[in-house]
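Incident log, support desk, overnight shift.

02:14 A customer reports that sequence design results differ from what the structure should imply. Their input is reproduced verbatim below. On-call engineer (initials T.W.) acknowledged and began investigating.
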């Protein structure tokens, strides 16, 4: 039985790593922008420090849940449409 040699990924490893690194930086950048203002947020928003800490917890939980959901969607529909849609 003859086998076909089809490459699923036609780009170089360097381009793939650059794409993956840029997507990871976006999540880190969001946290890096948010954390410096956290101590001042209760006074600015008129809330308690516990509520502000809850937003950090929810951010981390949703970041993990989003990775699971987008991973499953990208396996079903392909990575390109999901990245464009995201």
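02:41 Re-run completed on a clean worker. Output:
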């Amino acid at each position: 039985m003859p086998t076909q040699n089809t490459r699923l990924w036609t780009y170089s490893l360097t381009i793939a790593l650059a794409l993956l690194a840029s997507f990871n930086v976006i999540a880190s950048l969001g946290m890096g922008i948010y954390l410096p203002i956290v101590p001042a947020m209760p006074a600015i928003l008129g809330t308690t420090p516990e509520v502000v800490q809850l937003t950090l917890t929810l951010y981390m939980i949703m970041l993990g849940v989003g990775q699971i959901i987008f991973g499953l969607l990208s396996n079903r529909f392909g990575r390109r449409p999901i990245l464009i849609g995201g």
